[in-house]
């Protein structure tokens, strides 16, 4: 029999074993095969290496006996050295190897420690360089799993070490941004690193590179920065009750937002929602969305402040009102103004425009969440003269889907149990000179509640 025929026969046998190993009973019955498979890995040609790795992956899926035998046979080191022995790391082999290692790490602390010791940091760096989404997902699974459990804190600190682990994370983000990877293992890993371990600033700064060709006009932001913030925003928005946001992370996000607001050109109207492909604009938007969801988070303990309370002390609301006031009015109001006074209205001459579709809505959403149940914020907006500005956001805007809904929520939160604000809105309605086209078209009015005798906001378009 020729060598080619031998390999073909082995392929048939391995294919059959892989099929059997897909069930718990099959994995248990193939326990003796694990040791032989491991011993053959280092001398396997590429065609057989992939099949043997897939067999190992299946054998290690939830089978405690096989998982322990794998560790006792130095399986993590054997798998890593076998895969990396080839001149070019094949994505399929790398994926199967990482899946096998991930299945092992899920078994417990002893297994996680063994996998980590065999892979960190050099092997993980090499896996992270493979630009393939099929490799990236099990890699993130291994990293995230190893950074959990009793020894997870130590391993997480090593992963965030500037010289040892941080280059791995930078490469992960770089690869993920290029292949547009959006799986949950990546989200959990980056959220754990950036928020729970409070390494957002370190990772964000490490993503800067003089070799980047995708950057803003200022050269300070690139696609990796935008991707990182977009991933963190998606994780927080999707799993608000499963993650904890720290004050440190909230402040870093706000700082990045302020800097992005100074970088973006507000004279060019955006024509697409996030992501726009322009890093500075995407960063502006993703930080706003993060702030929106951070400010929606409420502490479960009356003795513990949420990050929104910490943010409010830094002038968050005042700054967002400023940004909102600098924008041109919503499209509904602009049309009304144009019909009454023409396109040369003074209010439009130096006004900024939304750099992406949804920017105004996101500003209003953050303010609306900050207002919820916070009289100090309600009073601050009144003292800053922001009530009229917020009333103007309760309209339909072609460039800001759901602006009207967020505007109505902001007004509701602004007036709730705040007589001073309710009276000011009532007075605005009663003062004839203040009835501008934008207020007339807003679809809102203040009425006196017959039961309480207090002013209340009424949506006239629904009546």
Describe this structure in words.
- The protein is an all-alpha fold.
- It has helices at residues 3-20, 24-29, 31-40, 46-59, 64-72, 75-84, 91-105, 109-119, 122-128, 133-146, 152-159, 166-179, 184-196, 200-206, 223-238, 247-263, 279-294, 307-312, 316-326, 331-341, 346-349, 359-371, 375-383, 387-391, 403-415, 419-430, 437-440, and strands at 444-448, 455-459.
- Helices cover 63% and strands 2% of the residues.
- Strands 1-2 form a two-stranded antiparallel ribbon.
- The longest helix is centred in the N-terminal third of the chain and has 18 residues, at 3-20.
- The model is unreliable at 212-218, 299-303 and 432-442 (pLDDT under 50).
Key structural traits:
mainly alpha, Ataxin-10 domain-containing protein, 463 residues, 63% helix, Ataxin-10/CTR86_families, two-stranded antiparallel ribbon, cell division, cell cycle, ARM-like
| Main sheet makeup | 2 strands, antiparallel
> What characteristic shape results from the CA principal axes?
elongated
Strand order of the largest sheet: 1-2
Q: Would you count the extended β strands for me?
A: 2
Q: Give the % helix.
A: 55-70%
Order of helices and strands: HHHHHHHHHHHHHHHHHHHHHHHHHHHEE
Given helix and strand content, the structural type is: mainly alpha
Residue fraction in strands? under 5%
Work out the helix count.
27
| Uncertain spans | 212-218, 299-303, 432-442
Q: Determine Rg (CA atoms, Å).
A: 28 Å
Average predicted local confidence, pLDDT: 87
State the end-to-end distance. 87 Å
């Amino acid at each position: 029999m020729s060598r080619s025929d031998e390999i073909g026969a082995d392929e048939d046998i391995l294919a059959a074993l892989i099929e059997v190993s897909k069930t718990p009973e099959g994995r248990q019955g193939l326990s003796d095969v694990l040791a032989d498979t491991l011993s053959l890995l280092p001398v396997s040609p590429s065609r057989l290496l992939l099949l043997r790795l897939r067999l190992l992956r299946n054998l290690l899926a939830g089978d405690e006996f096989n998982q322990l035998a794998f560790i006792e046979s130095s399986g993590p080191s054997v798998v890593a050295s076998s895969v990396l022995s080839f001149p070019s790391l094949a994505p399929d082999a790398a994926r199967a190897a990482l899946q096998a290692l991930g299945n092992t790490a899920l078994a417990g602390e002893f297994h996680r420690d063994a996998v980590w010791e065999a892979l960190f940091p050099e092997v993980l760096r090499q896996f992270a360089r493979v630009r393939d989404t099929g490799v990236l997902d099990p890699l993130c699974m291994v990293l995230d799993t190893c950074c959990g459990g009793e020894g997870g804190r130590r391993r997480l600190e090593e992963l965030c070490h500037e010289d040892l682990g941080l280059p791995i994370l930078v490469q992960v983000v770089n690869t993920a941004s290029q292949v547009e990877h959006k799986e949950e293992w990546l989200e959990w890993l980056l959220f754990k690193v950036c928020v729970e371990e409070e390494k957002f600033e370190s990772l964000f700064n490490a993503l800067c590179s003089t070799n980047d060709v995708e950057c803003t006009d200022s050269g300070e932001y690139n696609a990796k920065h935008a991707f990182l913030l977009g991933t963190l925003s998606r994780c927080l928005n999707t799993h608000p009750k499963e993650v904890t946001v720290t004050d440190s992370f909230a402040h870093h996000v706000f700082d990045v937002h302020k800097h992005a607001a100074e970088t973006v050109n507000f004279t060019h109207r955006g024509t697409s929602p996030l992501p726009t492909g322009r890093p500075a604009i995407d960063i502006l938007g993703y930080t706003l969305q993060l702030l929106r969801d951070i400010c929606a988070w409420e502490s479960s303990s009356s003795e513990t402040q949420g990050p929104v309370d910490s943010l409010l002390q830094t002038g968050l609301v005042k700054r967002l009102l400023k940004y909102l006031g600098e924008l041109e009015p919503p499209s509904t109001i602009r049309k009304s103004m144009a019909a009454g006074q023409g396109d040369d209205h003074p209010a439009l001459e130096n006004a900024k425009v939304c750099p992406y579709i949804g920017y105004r809505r996101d500003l209003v959403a953050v303010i609306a969440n900050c207002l919820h149940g916070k009289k100090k914020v309600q009073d601050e907006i009144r003292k800053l003269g922001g009530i009229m500005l917020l009333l103007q956001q309760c309209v339909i805007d072609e460039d800001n889907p759901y602006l009207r809904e967020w505007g109505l929520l902001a007004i509701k939160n602004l007036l709730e149990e705040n007589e001073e604000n309710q009276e000011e809105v009532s007075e605005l309605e009663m003062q004839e000179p203040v009835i501008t086209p934008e207020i007339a078209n807003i679809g809102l009015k203040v009425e006196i509640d017959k039961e309480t005798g207090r002013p209340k906001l009424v949506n006239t378009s629904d009546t």
